[in-house]
């Protein structure tokens, strides 16, 4: 049995106790990563059953991944510290229920102690492209500790036909959009052709010729390819292709009603804000959604996105649930002092114009679009929006900021006067003087729910 000296010696020498995943873990990866993600990049379902997938993984060889090899693997985040890694996984649909700051810490502890860790899985396509299939977090953590991860390299070539593996020179012969431009698809009176192509097409952006003119001879393929990757990829991976996708969408001037949406849309996010930008009302409102009602601070702000396209939803409940993900994130601070930025989980609401929107919730509620009633905004010009902030998020930060500033042991000795002074200062940094005074006044009248203020100095 290893003692701690052995563990730290192995760590210093770049060794790890990598083991092959067991069948239960592989079955989970099959349903989460293969059926929901990888299958969309394949010409057909090459692993129709769990057992077929498990058998292939068990036959696959293992390799040690150096940083040079890692640079050639797609879908890797390559974060340099835990804070940035948590920021990446906070954009995953599995966050925070299955992946969060605690699971990252637990995995990091296993690595530093030399405990067994499942090998990540990397898939290799017939043309040699590689993509991380499972274990991006494990790979990042290993590299942070100077360790080259050992991965299972699953070569997909033997499971694809000769015709599929030996890609034809004429890309248009390999996909059903041949003969269709983006405009010929988007100008159809109904969405049937678009949905048919979307569900049948299995191409990937990486399989297209590097010199293909997307605006001329590839616009139909770009429309379908780009949207498939839009709904499959997580946040940072979308930046690789959205400029090309947007140019194709904007080039079509005769889009039919099923391709746009002009109603109210919502977006949930963790947003850094400035005192002069966010204007919160002194009024507190009850927001009623499908999941229940909650007390909110409401206001307005100008939303500035760095992305040329963003995901919004016509369903406020869906957007709110994305917003709640931000509450579990621990790498943000409230305040305006040195080393602090103001960042809070919030839900935005606005009304999109026809020319700035793409897709319609009439069919983006379907499972192939992740049941998210998504509407894509095709602009990143500054946008005036309504803002809804869960009071729970605000008071959670006040509690955390107070403990950080004074220590948990001082809570029981904090006077009402000092406690409320601290709360006022923090609230003012978030929403201004009027908002802070109004919210403090409500606490003395028992307007707020007790579970929001429990454990915060100055509240009874």
Structural features, described:
- With 460 residues, this protein is α+β, with helices and mostly antiparallel strands.
- It has 4 domains: 4-163, no CATH class; 172-250, no CATH class; 257-391, no CATH class; 393-453, no CATH class.
- 37% of the residues lie in helices and 19% in strands.
- The chain has 18 helices and 15 strands.
- The longest helix has 16 residues, at 391-406.
- It is flat and about 70 Å long.
- The model is unreliable at 1-14, 162-174, 326-341 and 444-460 (pLDDT under 50).
Describe the structure concisely for a colleague.
By secondary structure, this protein is an alpha+beta fold. Helices cover 37% and strands 19% of the residues.
Summarize the helices and strands and which ones pair or pack.
Layout: H1 4-12, E1 18-19, H2 23-34, H3 50-59, E2 61-64, H4 67-70, E3 73-74, H5 82-89, H6 101-112, E4 117-118, E5 121-124, E6 130-134, H7 136-144, E7 150-155, H8 162-165, H9 182-186, H10 192-200, H11 219-232, H12 242-250, E8 264-273, E9 279-289, E10 292-303, E11 310-313, H13 316-327, E12 342-351, E13 357-358, H14 361-364, E14 374-377, E15 383-390, H15 391-406, H16 416-431, H17 433-443, H18 450-453
Parallel strand pairs: 1-4, 3-6, 5-7
Antiparallel strand pairs: 2-7, 5-6, 8-12, 9-10, 10-15, 11-14, 12-15, 13-14
Helix pairs in contact: 2-3, 6-7, 11-12, 16-17
Keywords:
five-stranded antiparallel sheet; flat; 460 residues; alpha+beta; disordered C terminus; 18 helices; 15 strands
């Amino acid at each position: 049995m290893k003692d701690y000296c052995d563990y730290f010696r192995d760590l210093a020498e770049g060794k790890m106790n990598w083991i092959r995943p067991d069948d239960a873990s592989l079955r989970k990866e099959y349903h989460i990563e293969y059926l929901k993600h990888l299958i969309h990049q394949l010409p057909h379902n090459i692993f129709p059953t769990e057992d077929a997938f498990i058998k292939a993984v068990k036959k696959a060889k293992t390799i040690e991944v150096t940083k040079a090899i890692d640079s050639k693997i797609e879908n890797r985040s390559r974060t340099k510290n835990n804070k940035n890694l948590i920021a990446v996984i906070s954009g995953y649909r599995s966050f925070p229920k299955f992946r969060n700051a605690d699971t990252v810490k637990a995995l990091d502890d296993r690595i530093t102690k030399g405990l067994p860790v499942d090998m990540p899985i990397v898939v290799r396509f017939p043309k040699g492209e590689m993509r991380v299939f499972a274990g991006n977090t494990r790979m990042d953590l290993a590299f942070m500790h100077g360790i080259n991860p050992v991965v299972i390299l699953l070569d997909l070539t033997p499971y694809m036909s000769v015709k599929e593996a030996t890609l034809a020179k004429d890309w248009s012969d390999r996909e059903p959009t041949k003969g269709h431009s983006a405009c010929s698809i988007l100008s159809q009176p109904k969405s049937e052709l678009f949905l048919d192509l979307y569900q049948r097409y299995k191409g990937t952006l990486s399989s297209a010729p590097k010199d293909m003119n997307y605006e001329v001879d590839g616009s139909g393929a770009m429309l379908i390819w780009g949207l498939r990757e839009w709904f499959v990829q997580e946040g940072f991976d979308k930046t690789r292709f959205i400029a090309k996708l947007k140019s194709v969408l904007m080039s079509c001037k005769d889009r039919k009603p099923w391709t746009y949406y002009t109603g109210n849309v919502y977006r949930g996010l963790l947003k850094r804000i400035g005192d002069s930008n966010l204007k919160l009302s002194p009024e507190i409102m009850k927001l009623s959604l499908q999941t229940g009602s909650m007390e909110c601070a409401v206001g307005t702000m100008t939303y500035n996105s760095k992305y040329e396209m963003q995901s919004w939803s016509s369903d406020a409940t869906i957007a709110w649930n994305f917003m709640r993900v931000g509450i579990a994130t621990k790498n943000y601070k409230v305040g305006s002092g040195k080393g602090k930025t103001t960042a809070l989980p919030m839900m935005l609401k606005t009304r999109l114009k026809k020319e700035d929107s793409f897709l319609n919730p009439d069919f983006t509620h379907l499972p192939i679009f992740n049941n998210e009633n998504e509407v894509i905004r095709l602009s990143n010009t500054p946008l005036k929006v309504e803002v809804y902030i869960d009071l729970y998020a605000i008071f959670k930060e006040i509690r955390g900021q107070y403990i950080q500033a004074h220590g948990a042991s001082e809570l029981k000795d904090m006077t009402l006067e000092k406690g409320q002074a601290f709360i006022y200062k923090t609230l003012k940094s978030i929403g201004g003087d009027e908002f802070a005074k109004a919210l403090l006044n409500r606490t003395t009248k028992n307007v707020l729910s007790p579970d929001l203020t429990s454990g915060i100095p100055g509240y009874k």
